[in-house]
């Protein structure tokens, strides 16, 4: 409930001290923030960080809260990103350039681009979270990463209040990684993202689960973008839990990438291991498969559990804490290391 709202149009809404974050993190952890305020514009953001209550406090930016493990109350200021708006910023004969504000829901944005006849993001349907969170961990699924479509990220530098535009190279995108997750963390707040959607469209339907789903409904036909979108939604619904029903943050670990030499030794011991050859000669391993083979699928530690249909996803069965999830994650990491000699890196940020 808002407790203070000044009459200045650009002032953000501040919420009561001890703000409950349960509805603002997809694990549904029951923790509180010292302060929270709702950011609807870049001016709101500037005003929030200048506010006397914010001085000397840490800040935490929350979009959909789908990539964070909140282990305790946050003794700082939470910025609830609610910047809205999406538009075709520019169009030429080759592509549409579509800009969306950071607070837009990612899946609604993807649906909107398709309805407007601008395909290219359909493989990323149904990923929880907001547009502003997408570049931070370079969201990806079914053979596409957002980095392949992202041309600009607009952000505010917290220390100076200045607007900074990052082109794709400056974002330093990697597999579930970017500048914003590393050096830029806590320094910049993303306010908008621009995507380039090429007018010549080709289905990206090679990913095994997706190809299977499409073959079932479309046989050998080349699918159109809406069919790819529907197939992605169907595959995700079948495997991944809906955070509104079962708290989770998607894949809890990254798929580890190892050197070819290490893989050659490992595959002799584990001939069934699921792997993907990388362009640089290294090999990516399916962490979900390894966790599954260690017998963790469906197992629980108190209310923290490994999802029954996808071992890479940890879930809150109700009443789990962030510490429970981290304890479970550590037990899994120990077992995978012992059996496969591979370290699993956590994907969501813990706080
Ligand atoms: N597998 C198992 N058991 C399991 C889980 C997976 O044997 O419990 C096997 C599967 O049969 C498959 C392989 O492992 O052969 C890979 O599984 P899947 O296709 O489900 O994909 P993933 O590698 O586990 C990644 C992304 C997901 C993304 C899917 C589809 C990461 C960390 N995760 O999962 O992204 O949706 O591919 O592209 O890269 C996310 O990042 O939050 C996320 C959900």
Automatic annotation (TrEMBL):
Catalytic activity line of the entry: UDP-N-acetyl-alpha-D-muramate + NADP(+) = UDP-N-acetyl-3-O-(1-carboxyvinyl)-alpha-D-glucosamine + NADPH + H(+)
A molecular function annotated in GO for this UniProt entry is: UDP-N-acetylmuramate dehydrogenase activity
Pfam families membership: FAD_binding_4, MurB_C
Top-level division of the source organism's lineage: Bacteria
| Entry EC no(s) | 1.3.1.98
Q: Does the keyword Cytoplasm apply?
A: yes
Q: Which family does it belong to?
A: Belongs to the MurB family.
- Would you tell me the protein name for this molecule? UDP-N-acetylenolpyruvoylglucosamine reductase
State the species of origin: Paraburkholderia acidiphila
Corresponding gene? Answer: murB
């Amino acid at each position: 409930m808002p407790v203070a709202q000044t009459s200045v149009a650009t002032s953000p809404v501040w919420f009561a001290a001890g703000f409950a974050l349960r509805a603002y993190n997809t694990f549904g952890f029951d923790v509180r923030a010292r302060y929270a305020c709702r950011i609807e514009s870049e001016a709101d953001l500037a005003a929030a960080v200048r506010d006397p209550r914010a001085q000397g406090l840490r800040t935490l930016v929350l979009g959909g809260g789908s990539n964070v493990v909140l282990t305790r109350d946050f003794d700082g200021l939470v910025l609830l990103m609610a910047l809205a708006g999406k538009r075709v910023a520019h169009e030429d004969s080759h592509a549409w350039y579509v800009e969306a504000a950071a607070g837009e829901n990612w899946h609604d944005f993807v649906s909107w681009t398709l309805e407007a006849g601008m395909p290219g993001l359909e493989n990323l349907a149904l990923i929880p979270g907001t547009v502003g969170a997408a570049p931070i961990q370079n969201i990806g699924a079914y053979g596409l990463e957002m980095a392949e479509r992202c041309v600009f990220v607009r952000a505010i530098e917290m220390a100076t209040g200045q607007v900074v535009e990052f082109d794709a190279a400056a974002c330093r995108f990697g597999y579930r990684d970017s500048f914003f997750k590393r050096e830029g963390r806590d320094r910049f707040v993303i306010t908008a993202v621009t995507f380039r959607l090429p007018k010549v469209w080709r289905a990206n339907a090679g990913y095994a689960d997706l190809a299977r789903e499409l073959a079932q409904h479309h046989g050998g036909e080349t699918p159109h973008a809406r069919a790819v979108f529907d197939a992605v939604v169907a595959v995700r619904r079948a495997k991944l839990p809906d955070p509104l029903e079962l708290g989770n943050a998607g894949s809890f670990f990254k798929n580890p990438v190892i050197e070819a030499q290490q893989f050659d030794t490992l595959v002799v011991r584990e001939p069934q291991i699921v792997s993907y050859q990388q362009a640089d000669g290294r090999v990516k391993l399916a962490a979900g498969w390894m966790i599954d083979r260690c017998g963790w699928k469906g197992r629980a530690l108190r209310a923290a559990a490994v999802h029954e249909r996808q071992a890479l996803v940890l879930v809150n069965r109700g009443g789990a804490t962030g510490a429970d999830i981290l304890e479970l994650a550590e037990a899994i990491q120990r077992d995978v290391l012992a059996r496969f000699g591979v370290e699993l890196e956590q994907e969501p940020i813990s706080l």
